[in-house]
Amino acid sequence: MARYPLALIPVVTSSGGRALKAPDAYGSSTGTGTTAESIASWVAQGAGWIHLVDQDALDGSSATRPHVPRVSAHVQYAGGVRDDASLTAALATGADRVIVEADDLAWTTTAVAAHAGKLVVGLDIRRPDVTEVAIELQRVGCDRFLVTDEAQSHHWKHEDRHLLEEFVTRTNRPVMVRGGIHHISDLHALHDLVAHGIDGILLDDAVYGGAFTYAEAVSACADRFDMFIWGPAE
After folding, report:
1. Predicted confidence (pLDDT) per residue in 170-187, tens digit
2. How many domains in the chain?
3. Are 54 and 75 within 8 A, CB to CB?
4. By residue range, what is the domain housing residue 194?
């Protein structure tokens, strides 16, 4: 039986050129290194994609904008990209994909039309018009979304899950999700939606804090999904 594609994507947050490394086993990550060293530590554990958050750019500084190292994984860059200047800088990092924000829908539409295969549009699942915005962006060539749940509780449970299910069933593009992953059971809770279009789950605080290891996350999904269909970087 064919398996659906699903990537588990560690989040690396770079600040001042430094970032937490992947934990070696159980327990919180206490080691830091350069952004490249942090990315490499996740690649060593089998990650095929990395979600690189540029905290300096989010804080209003581009002085230490990280350059994406050459590693055997793909990297998607997120740094509050929402205008021409920040998009140009983000594309210059060498990332395989760039996350752009849809605050200004007119600008986002233009950017996606110009760089369709390179950009992923980030959306908050609780945005009232989230599905309508996604459908409009599909029309101009958007081929992937990153949907985040910013709720302080519930996340992909109860009404938040309903919102996510509606989003993935009404759009026809691959969707990555971020937020609400605290335990292995939270990964299982998203599995039923993979068939509807989820093909990536971002892992952040839970793996850095020792709730589970990256290997355990892969094992929890490997029997039902193809974890490596996206493949390593060439």
Report:
1. 998 999 999 988 889 888
2. 1
3. no
4. 47-225
